[in-house]
Amino acid sequence: MNQVSETKQSLILHAALHEFANKGYKKASTNSIVKQAGVSKGLLFHYFISKKELFIKIHQHILVVFNDELNTCLD
Question: N or C, which end of the chain has less CB nearby within 10 Å?
Fold first, then answer.
């Protein structure tokens, strides 16, 4: 994956995290996510097949970050 792709995905994930955190899964809007990320809706669905997949990806990422932080604190 190239740097541009990684940057775009990062923008999407950050915007989605904000949207899901503020509105919950059901009320979160993919239109709002792409607007916040500054990308097209087509690009969102190029990287993530569905809103559900995007939500799961964010959930997995948060668990990894939390686990890393916890391990750092315990060491």
Answer: C
